[in-house]
Design goal:
Blueprint: H1 3-6, H2 11-20, E1 23-24, H3 32-35, H4 45-56, E2 60-67, H5 74-77, H6 82-99, E3 106-111, H7 124-129, H8 133-144, E4 149-154, H9 160-175, E5 182-185, E6 188-190, H10 196-207, E7 212-221, H11 254-273, E8 278-283, H12 316-326
Parallel strand pairs: 1-2, 2-3, 3-4, 4-5, 5-7, 6-7, 7-8
Bound molecules: (3S,4R)-3-hydroxy-2-oxopiperidin-4-yl beta-D-xylopyranoside.
Length: about 325
């Protein structure tokens, strides 16, 4: 949910959310730069509102996120010495995670700590706190939020090398005797290139660690990738606009609607096959109009990555996804 939706300024969105979803995630408002803008100042208003909203509508909140190198407040980005970073890290996790313990269902404790080759990403946390910062974050979260599920979340961790890195990281947390309950595969993919085999293998390998597997930010871009850019959800890697990579400014042609529907069908068939291992699927946005993919990695485009269109109407892909369940034998109640 974005800010307008959390503030209940968008009645159409609210009608759809309460009708179609049983779990919500804040797109931005629980990230450090918003919830903790200054050393000694926290902005809990919107997060509190989200918690109340979810309670009122009988939904769970999956909170996103505690520790991430992006969307950090300015005061943290400017920090030079390790002691300050350590103090921020401890205060932030303690304050935010304990406030919402028992109120949110889960936290993405650490987001995007890995490089594509599976090594640890260079970030302020790695540089100032060292290799163990992920274990430390989970240890602090476990203490501050004993009633909250704790997850590691990242993009492209279905890819073999990055997956191996994620598995090593999760094993390290477990070996330290620290609780980790699940792993979130973000799922920002392209309609032409959904890595089905890697996803299946990942479900098997991650669940073999004894943790939940989730798809936490699902969307399928239908627009051409900018030249030379591989599929990545790294929010710092953007590209310039040109009209050739924005082909569907008026509407999505039928052939593309069908292609999207087929890609989503294949994905949800796989999810149903492993429904005993997958605890949640979350879309990154309610409808196409509000998707971040209209602005990322290229600003000003018209993308169609979700199941509901700009008028909040279900797209062909929506009906196909529903059919995977009503026509299949698999059954799961949340
Ligand atoms: C994105 C939001 O959707 C945008 O509104 C914001 O400007 C940048 O971040 N991986 C994540 C999410 O874990 O937090 C990112 O969300 C998308 C990539």
């Amino acid at each position: 949910m974005n800010t307008a939706q959390i503030e209940e300024k968008d009645p159409k969105a609210e009608a759809l959310i309460t009708q179609q979803f049983n779990a919500v995630t804040p797109e931005n408002i629980m990230k450090a730069e918003i919830i903790h803008p200054q050393w000694d100042k926290y902005n809990f208003d919107l997060a509190d509102k989200l918690v109340d909203y979810a309670k009122k509508h009988n939904m769970i909140v999956n909170a996103h996120n505690l520790i991430w190198h992006s969307q950090l407040p300015v005061f943290v980005r400017r920090m030079k010495d390790a002691d300050s970073v350590r103090q921020y890290f401890v205060n932030h996790i303690n304050t935010v995670a304990s406030r919402y313990d028992g109120k949110v269902y889960s936290w993405d404790v650490v987001n995007e700590a890995l490089n594509e080759d599976g090594t640890m990403r260079k970030s302020i946390f790695l540089e100032k706190l060292g290799d163990d910062f992920v274990v430390d974050a989970f240890r602090l979260a476990q203490k501050a939020a004993p009633h909250t599920k704790l997850y590691y979340n990242d993009y492209n961790i279905e890819q073999p090398k990055k997956r191996a890195g994620a598995i090593a990281l999760i094993k390290k947390i477990q070996a330290a005797g620290v609780r980790i309950d699940g792993v979130g595969i973000q799922g920002h993919w392209h309609v032409d290139n959904v890595p089905m085999e890697d996803i299946e293998q990942s479900i098997k390998e991650f669940s073999a660690l004894g943790i939940e597997v989730m798809f936490t930010e699902l969307d399928l871009s239908v627009l051409p990738n900018p030249r030379g850019r591989s599929n990545s959800a790294d929010i710092s890697q953007t590209a310039n606009y040109n009209a050739q990579i924005n082909p569907y400014t008026k509407e999505l042609p039928d052939s593309m609607q069908q292609k999207l529907a087929t890609a989503y069908t294949d994905l949800f068939k796989l999810f149903l096959k492993y429904n005993d291992k997958i605890s949640r699927v979350t879309f990154w946005g309610v409808n196409d109009g509000q998707s971040w993919l209209n602005g990322f990695p290229v600003p000003g485009r018209t993308n169609y990555p979700l199941l509901f269109d700009r008028e909040f109407k279900p797209k062909p892909a929506f009906y196909k996804v529903i059919e995977t369940k009503t026509k299949g034998s698999a059954n799961k109640t949340f």
